[in-house]
Structure formats: structure tokens, C-alpha cells
Amino acid sequence: MQAPLEPVRWEDDHLRILDQRELPERLLYIRARDVETVADAIRTLAVRGAPAIGIAAAYGVLVGALAGRAIRVADSVRGGATGSGGSNPAAGAREAARAAADQLQTTRPTAVNLFYGLNRMRAVLAREQGSEAELLTALRAEADAVLDEDLKTGEAIAAAGFALFPDQDEVHVLTHCNAGGLATGGWGTALAPIYAAHRAGRKVHVFADETRPLLQGSRLTAWELKQAGVDVTVLVDGAAATLLTRGRVDLVIVGADRVAANGDTANKIGTLGVALAAREAKVPFYVAAPLSTFDFSLPGGDHIPIEQRAAEEVLGTRGAPGAAAFNPAFDVTPARFIHGWITEKGVLPPPFDEARSSR
Ligand code: MRU
Helices 132-162 and 89-104 meet at what angle, rounded to 10? Predict the structure, then answer.
């Protein structure tokens, strides 16, 4: 089945990125033909959500290799220097692609999918020793594979998560931030089971936390759910605890940016508060994430690098002049608050032994 959303797709000679900064008002696309455009799109959250960042970065390496070739061709037409790689086009393409990977690596620190996507492309650069054309073909194939695997993963997470839904007339799910089609290749993680339930004719009502300061919940989650015909109520982040403790929520499903080996999970700032309230209210709290979001090299959540973002994002909305801002983009929910990790291999508990060996 065709995924409903296409946040990142390759088109002819460029990367097409749905500009999520413009949603829900406008459906605009960025056409990236140089690495800086891809890096800027990731840094400024035009493309965001862990799996989508990984996919964009993988294609970004191809963008870098192609941009390097364009510069070399232009140089040789002018009869001047042959650019990076000298007279060896394959070496030049490899060098440009490596530089692209190095640049993209600095865009955002928390979502491990960024590094997962880049490492897949670096492995191709190390392996593929043929001509420039062969290298470009191999880079394209690998980036396509990262995207295709994410789409398949989304379908598997949908099925595994839907199986957790209680058997009742209407199911109420609370989510935080956006872990939907927009945040992935197109199916989503936390929202994927909701779409599966909706397609199966079940009544589902989603409570979407607004998700300050960048409003991924009210702008993006609510938008894509409405596009799919799913009922959604937006609430300010501070209202989640009230809703949970009043018994209005059957289960919580959130996404993840990085899951440590012991199950501690980094996700959008505010997730920890939801987990604490869900525990108090005895509402099951699940994390939905592909195995590409697991970082088995980190023993626990305190090793996960947390992105700190600009004060302006917090204070820009009527903050008093001179006030300081605390603006971590993510928090870490300890594994003990999480009922299960919904992955493409089913609902897993730490230490994820089976998942580790299959990766
Ligand atoms: O800063 P963002 O919008 O990239 O943060 C996104 C999240 O925290 C998502 O919940 C997470 O990446 C999972 S996306 C499937």
C-alpha cells in the first residue's frame, strides 16, 4: 500500500523535502540540490522526526556526491582546475560524499537515526570502489533502501501496536509531539497503530499534546490525523496529566529519538512528564520505534546527548525581556516507566537481545 505522506522523496536529480515549518497552513516543498540546503532543512526542522532525519541525511550524501560532480564538470568546461578528486571522478565523488556526511552529522545530536543513515552511506563509500557512475548508483540504491526499510518497518509497527488496543467500542490514545507519517518515510511509529485501527474500522480518538515550543502536536500530528479522517483533540501540554488522571485515556503511545540498551528513551521534551502522569494514573505507556532508533552502544539514558535549542523558541512567544530560557529539545524517560517498545520485531522488553542479534 502507498504511504499517505511523503515527507522525503528523491525526484529525478534532487531531494524533495516537505517543509514542515509551513504546516498546517501551506504544503510547500524544498528542492535540495546542495548539501547545505539539506543540512539547513534538518537543523531548522523543515524535516524532522528521527526516521525522517535519517532518510534525509542518507539522501543528503547522494546530493553531496552529485553537487561535487556538477562543480567538477563546470570546472572542466571552463578548462580550469578539476576540483576535488583531481582527474579521478570516482575519487572526487567519494570525497564530496564524505564531506557531505561530515557536514550532515553536525546538524542535530539526539536522534540516532541521523548517524544510522550516514553510517549506511559511509559503508557504501568504503565498499564501492568502481567508477563514478557505479558509486552514484550504489549511493542512490542505499538511500532508497533506508527509505524502503523504514516504510516496511512502519507497517510492522502498525500491526504490533494495534494488537495492544483494548477490545472496546472506542479507544482513546494520547501522544506527544509528532511520530506520524511526517516524522518517518510515510507511515509513522506512534501514529502507525492508530492508522491501522482506523483502517480496520475501529473507533479511535487521539489526544495530541500541543508540544511547546514548536507545536509538532497541534500543527503536525493534528494535521496528519485530520487528513486521514481520524478524530483528534489538541490539548496544551500542561493538560495531559489532568486527562490521564481523570481516566480519559486508554493508552499512551509516543515515538523515540534514541533508545539506550537498558530501554531508557529520549523523546520530545515533555514526554517524561506524560510518563510520570501515566504511571500515577495506571495507564499503559508505550514507545513505538524502529530498531534504527536503538543505540545499543549506550548503556543508559544519561549517555544520550540532548539537543539544546535557541532561547528565542521559548521566549519568542511573549517572553519578558531579559528572562533566560531553558530549552532542551528532548528528555529521557527511564525504562521503568515504559510498558513496552513497539518495534518491527514486535513489542519488546529490554535488554532487546533478539533485536540486537537481528541488526
Ligand atoms: O524535534 P523533533 O520534531 O525532530 O522531535 C521529534 C520527536 O521527538 C519524535 O517523537 C521522534 O523523533 C520520533 S519520530 C517517529
Answer: 40
pTM (2 decimals)? 0.96
Interatomic CA distance for residues 329 and 307, integer angstroms: 6
CA of 293 to the centre of ligand 1 (A): 11
Catalytic, out of 257, 264, 295, 331: 257
pLDDT digit string, tens, across residues 146-171: 999 999 999 999 999 999 999 999 99
Radius of gyration for the alpha carbons in the chain, expressed in angstroms and rounded: 21
- For ligand 1, the distance from its centroid to the CA atom of residue 131, given in whole angstroms, is 38
Q: How far is the C-alpha of 32 from the C-alpha of 60, rounded, in Å?
A: 8
Q: Which residue among 112, 177, 218 is best mutated to probe the pocket of ligand 1, counting the most ligand atoms within 8 A of its Cβ?
A: 177
Nearest to 97 by CA among 149, 57, 47: 57
- Dihedral over alpha carbons 40, 42, 46, 52 (to 10 degrees): 150
**What gap in Å lies between CA 250 and CA 277, rounded to an integer?**
13
Q: Residue 171 — left, alpha, or beta (φ > 0 → left; ψ -120 to 50 → alpha)?
A: beta
Beta-sheet strands, E only, within 40-185: 170-175
Q: HEC profile for 289-342? A: CCHHHEECCCCCHHHCCCCECCCHHHHCCCCCCCCCCCCECEEEECHHHCCEEE
- Which of ligand 1's atoms lies nearest the C-alpha of 216? 3
Spatial separation of the C-alpha atoms in residues 340 and 347, rounded to whole Å? 6
User: Is 257 tagged catalytic?
Assistant: yes
118-138 pLDDT, tens digit per residue, is 999 999 999 999 999 999 999
- The two beta strands, 258-260 and 294-295, are parallel
